[in-house]
Amino acid sequence: MTAREMTGIGVSPGAAAAPVARLAPPPAMPDDTGPEPDPDTALADAKAALETVAADLEDRAERAEGPAAEVLFALSMMPRDPALAGRVAKGLSDGRSTPHAIAEGFAFFRSALEAAGGYLAERAADLDDLRDRAIAALLGLPMPGLPDPDHRFVLVARDLAPADTAALDPAKVAAIVTEQGGPTSHTAILAKSMGLPAVVACPAAAALADGTEVLVDGRTGLVVPDPDSGRVRRVLDAESKRTAALAASRGPGRTADGHAVQLLVNLGSPADLAGAAAVDSEGVGLFRTEFLFLDRETAPTVDEQAESYGQVFAAFSGRKVVVRTLDAGADKPLAFVDHGEEPNPALGVRGIRLARTDAGASLLNDQLTAIAAAAAQHSAEVWVMAPMVATPGEAAAFADHCRAHGLPTAGTMIEVPAAALRASRVLDGCDFASLGTNDLGQYTLAADRMNGALADLLDPWQPALLDLVSLAAEAGREAEKPVGVCGEAASDPLLACVLVGIGVTSLSMAPSAVAAVRAELATKTLADCAAMAAEALNANDAAEARRLVAAFQ
For the domain that residue 153 is a member of, what is the CATH number? Predict the structure, then answer.
């Protein structure tokens, strides 16, 4: 690798070459810190600026679809939070100018979200973008964010806010490179859903100036400034062949020698349903049900849930649907449950642990009742699994609970290292396991998966994480029970081959990733996959694992 080459984490496959265009900077804060001569008028101006931002995001959400629409709708609610207006009013009454009162209002909630950790900590970065937009609207300045040159470009930024990523036009943006971020960031998830090549956690990209021609490889994480034409041609030709192979990719997952690997999709909300069902997959490997419970004041009724689950079962008629029961609590609190105070939400009462409380047990009972009622009305093959299982006893108790509700196939998520280490005993009491590599990775490496500064530790290629996957897969082989992966790791075509070589029986991923994974598997025999797995497991770190496996080809 030459000194000019840069490396990050490739989070969305594909390759592109184009000039750099950098993200526009946020508005400069005025020197005047206040006070305002008329605080009432100033508060009205601040509220109008916040509403401008909310309305703009809502409008974009209505024109978007899938994950982008979801993200934008969620963001549009934040500027309209009365508590935020209250903090701005307090800042004005304390003698701040309107821009500084807005900034302090957002800072108050940012600190609270950062302290909560996990899912809520990820929202903290979103608030910075909303703050900048509100101040720009207040001051009558251009909105910070996306450049608009008259040519295709590689978007380079320190990091990308969800609002910017969701608004990208793939006809103009050739690829994305960010200095920060991680494999589970909004940038990674949305870029993958849009089919844009993306590299994150590439700090050297700070040196890239506007107009610099760069070659970006979203598979390997390589960014090459001023590449020679021959290299660009070779990489883009290889990408064209890969794209053609994807277009021809059809049918069940198979290695080149016919070893079956079930390819499934992840599903997170009704907005994703039509697109996910249209993908040539064997069903749903992870149906997240939190959308029914979060952002509401009362629990959904059994009938509400049954109707919603039934829509998914109908769309995947005749195919497998693995329903994950409610993964809430701690960092995803429910308004209608008293969660109490927790010093470390990431290690708190979430997932199946919520059923230790009376309220949580009632929620689980209602959810299983609703799943069973919906399953009885449709031909989908319904499996159910619990999140955050840590012990064999928890797995067995959950499986018994499912069977008592008439749900015959019950399993467990393996996202706690204890469950992976004791996977043989965990599987004794249930029918299958699914590895959630996002959470399993953060608990294995003791690194918050929303912390971009720890992106190298959060990389799903980490050999320690793969060791735990191997333990679980071996336990599945011995018990003759399926063990799949439903984390972001499954959507990386090369890593998917490694996982199959380790012994994983199914892969569940973003719908947009299915064709690429299927095409990659079709080029490798099971022996090839096993050899790739051996290389990755013998590596010292994630970067070396990627290099060794890439060289295998």
Answer: 3.50.30.10
Say if residues 118 and 345 touch (Cβ distance below 8 Å): yes
User: DSSP of 62-97, one letter per residue?
Assistant: HH--HHHHHHHHHHHHSTT-HHHHHHHHHHHHTT--
Q: Which of 139, 170, 200 is the last residue of a domain?
A: 139
Which CATH number goes with the domain that contains 312? 3.20.20.60
User: Residue holding tokens 């380079």?
Assistant: 156
Per-residue pLDDT, 169: 85
CA distances from 312 to 67, 276, 280, 322, 407 (A): 17, 10, 16, 11, 17
Q: Name the H helices within 258-376.
A: 273-278, 302-315, 358-376
Among the candidates 245, 271, 289, a domain finishes at 245
359 and 465 together in one domain: yes
Q: What confidence score (pLDDT) does residue 174 get? A: 95
Tell me the pTM.
Answer: 0.71
Catalytic-role residue among 186, 378, 401, 405: 186
Query: What pLDDT is attached to residue 1?
Result: 43
Domain residues for 156?
Answer: 6-24+146-245
d(CA 273, CA 330): 27
Residue 114: per-residue pLDDT: 66
513 within 8 A of 439, measured Cβ to Cβ: no
For residues 326 and 367, the answer to whether their CB atoms sit within 8 Å is: yes
Confirm whether 272 is domain-assigned: yes
Residue whose token pair is 């093959």 = 381
Do 51 and 109 lie in a common domain?
Answer: yes
In a domain, 31, yes or no: no
Confidence (pLDDT) at 2:
46
Q: What is the pLDDT of residue 450?
A: 62
Is residue 157 assigned to a domain?
A: yes
Residue 259 is among the residues annotated as catalytic for this protein: no
Which strands, in side-by-side order, build the sheet including 222-225? Answer: 6-7, 222-225, 213-217, 15-22, 153-157, 173-178, 198-200, 9-12
Give the pLDDT means over successive 10-residue stretches in the chain (553 positions). 76 92 86 88 95 88 73 83 92 93 91 61 74 92 80 92 80 93 76 87 92 93 94 91 80 96 92 89 95 85 96 97 88 71 77 89 96 97 97 97 97 97 98 95 84 78 97 98 92 94 96 90 95 97 91 76
Q: Are residues 264 and 157 in the same domain?
A: no
Does the annotation count 497 as an active-site position?
no
Give domain status of residue 195, yes or no: yes
Confidence (pLDDT) at 117 = 54
Give residue 126's identity as a one-letter amino acid code: D
DSSP string over 219-260 = TTTEEEES--HHHHHHHHHHHHHHHHHHHT--SS-B-TT--B
Catalytic residue among 202, 402, 430, 486: 486
The whole-number pLDDT of residue 184 equals 67
